[in-house]
Structure formats: structure tokens, C-alpha cells
Amino acid sequence: MRKKYTGQIHHLHLLEGAEKAVGLTVIIDVFRAFSLESYLYAMGAEEIRPVGSIEQAFSLHEQFPGSVLIGERKGVKCEGFDYGNSPSQVIPEAVAGKVILHTTSAGTQGIVAAENAAELLAGSFTTARAIADYILEKDPVEVSLVSMGTMGTRTNPEDELCAEYIRCLLLGEEMPDLDEKLQAMRYNGAEKFFAPENQSVFPEQDFWMCIKHDIFDFVLRVEKDPFGFVTKRVVLPKETL
């Protein structure tokens, strides 16, 4: 029988929610930051370093020769970067074995802001069940699920739904209509991925990649070292899956 979490769950929102987060904290950014990071690790990236500013990314790029710059502002690739925030546009061979420097408008900002968290995970649908299993194994007193929303300033349906799905997994509750809710977002919040004029920045394939749930057996645990934040790919033992 699957374990159920008996601690306290806080569902927080936006940058102000990240600032208030305590306990084991999951910073959620579905479209597209942490979905992308999970795919980057699946493509063989050596490590991913989330950073708050474009300037910091360029500074780290000098310290990590051969590193790959990935990031966006308002969805658009940062000038001088190798890639924007699009999982479908990244060439796997270009990131395999490389250090990735990643900055976004919402997700990575939440990591920087969550100074009171006891432990940090980067969350999306692709790793949702693994996140729940990791939390159940750790069994912390408190869990904070932070839906970062759009630009970290206004809520969006995808991050809210992801937090609710993780909460259901923790409590052993069913969400039988998850796939229908995910696909319905193309008409509620994700329209930009289907507009012909947006395909260079928000390709439709990104939508379908980001709504895939529970496809990876690892979590993205955020740690800190002398260079700043680093996202570690932590594979869960098979007995916890």
C-alpha cells in the first residue's frame, strides 16, 4: 500500500510565495523552466546551474569553459545565449556532458527567492510522481508547493494544477481527469503554443512535452556551492517508485 504524507502542506504562489516557503520546498514551473531541466538531464547534461540574472549567467560562462547558456526573458531567448527556454529546440548532442547555465523569468527566480526553505526541489509534471515519492521517503514535517506562475507575478493554470497533482499524490488521492485537464490547457493559458506567429519562440511541441507527467524516475534537487545554485539529478531507488 502506498504511504500517505501526514505532515503539513503549504500551497504558495508566485515570488512572494517562494519567499515564504519553509520545509521541503518544491518550486514549480511547468511552462517551461523545470520541464526543460528534466529533459536536459535526460539528454545527458552534466549539471544545470539555475541563476537569477543574465549577467550572472555570462559571468559563470567564463568560469565554466564550454558551458551552454539557456534562458529567456518574457519567453524570448536572451541575447547572446545558445538556446531559449524550449525543450523541443535543444539539440541533445549540444548539451550532453555539458554544464548548463539556466535563467528564466519565473522558475529560477523562485529558487533564488526561497531562502527559508530547508530543502529545494525544482518541479514540473514530468517528475511529479518522483517528487511525491521523494517527499514520502524523506517525510519532512512541512512541505511547501510553490506555483511560480507567469513571470512570478500572476498565477497560471499549469503551475496550480501541478501543485494540486503533487498534493494528491502525497495524500494518496486520485486525480482521474488529469490528462483531460492537461490537454484542456491548450485553450486555457497555453494558447501561445498554438499560434502560428509564435512558433519560433513557443513551439507547439513544447506544450506536449511539458504536459507529459511522471515520465522520469528522478527529482531535481537544488543545492548550493561556491559558484551558486546547482540542480542535481537524484534518481530514486526502485523500491520507492
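Above is the first protein from milestone M3; the second protein from the same milestone is given next.
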Amino acid sequence: MSKNTIAYQGYAGAYSHLSCTKAFPKMRAHACDSFAQAMFMVERGEAQLAMIPIENSTAGRVEEIYRLMPKTHLHIIQEHFEPVNHCLLAIPGTRIEQLKTVSSHPQALAQCNSAIEDLNLQQIAHLDTAGSAEELATTKSTTHAAIASKLAAKLYGLEVIKENFQDISGNTTRFIILAKEKNIPQYQQHKTFITTMMFTVRNIPSALFKAMGGFATNGINMVKLESYMASDSMSATSFHLDVIGHPEQQQMQLALQELAFFSKEMRVIGTYEGHAFRFNGTH
């Protein structure tokens, strides 16, 4: 199954599935019950790639991913930004006036709260947006709706009653695409590259400040720095860092040397071309 298979977490029709079809339309998308299952499928060679959400512009970071990454030897080979378009779905032929209840993932319900209240619908939380669509297709209730993607509507034979049902537009999820093999593109001056690394600083005063100093002195722009507890003991803090730069650039080499010197552990987990959305806000 490994060749031409991309794994994702969730039901068929989930936003992760939609992202797979957008970024890799010729690959077979495989649904997994958890992020860990999707990632370890790639680790074991059962899937070629994994599509993993790492942050959302409304809900923030997906913390579980930062804890899972150190347990794998996977590499980031690409990033993908997917604008979230929540759709109100119903059984074909249902009129909006008939609806009494709506189900979806709690985050989707929260992002559509005002629109739901305008229709005076009772909210029902579900583990997954696409899962709520699948359940609706099974029950065939004409008084119940689901909030999910347009892809979910297509897969489960539902009708889109309302598109862009979310209260605020611009909600976007950033995904990372993981592979077993390292695939660093050759440096090209006219392209913008992102390098991602994980590190744990040494136990010395101002260690983080000193570790980051190499990027400042070498003119490397840091675009993301996340901290997380690396173990259950809460004794060591680890960091996830994204910078604009390529390892073939001399400034990056100097900055990475300084980071390695002040780090107890340091691992570059990917260099990849920055997605267009990152720079101009278009998909």
C-alpha cells in the first residue's frame, strides 16, 4: 500500500482528506483513527506520505503533533495551507426551516456559533466533522444537519444548504507533509525556503537567548517558535522552530552551528519551499 498512498487522521471527507486531494490529487488517501497511526504508517513504510495539521489560525497549535514528532524519524518535505470552508449539510430535499439540530466537531460548532443561533438550532458535539456527515447520511433525518466540508457532502450524498457557514472568514489550517526519506530541495536564490528543527537547550543561564542569537546575528528570520514539555517529568522543555533559510546558505550554517552548541539535542526535520499562502495569503 506504501506506493502512492498518503495517510491522514479522520473520516473520509475530513479537512485533512480534502487537503490530500488538493495537494496530491493522484495519490490514494488513507483514513486513520489517530495522528500517531498516520505518522507510524509512514515510519513502517505502509504509506508514502502523511498529511498532518500542525496549527490553525483560529484554534492555534495542534499540541499532540509536537509530542509525536520526536518519537518518529520522519522528515517534513512540504507544507500546505487549507482555508476552512464550513458547509451546512442536510439530506437532499430538506428545507432549512425543517432543521432543529446540528452536529459537528466542537471547534467547527464554535466557529459557526452565530450562524447556528440565527437558525435557532440545537448543537450536538461530534468527534469529527466528516463523521457527523456520515452519521447524518445513515440516519437520514430531515430535521438534523451537519457542519463539514463540501467533499464530505459529495462522499455521503448530502446537500449543501449553506456554504461559508462560519462566522468569520479566513480560518486556515497549516499542514505538514511527512515522509520517511529526507528530501531537501536544492537552494535557488529566487525561492523562499523554510527550515524546521526541534531542539532542547543546555541547562545553563540564558541558554535559549544564546541559542537564538545565531539567527539574529546572521540575519535569519524566525517565523515560528513553540515550546512543549518533552517528557512526563516536566523537567525538560523542548522547542519547535521554523526559520526562513536553507542549509546551503552560509548564514544558515553559522546559525545552526550556534544553535547546536547551546543545545543538548538538536535535529533538523525538514527544509522545504514555503507555500504561496504564507507570503501573499492566497491559496
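Note on the second protein: The longest helix spans residues 250-261.
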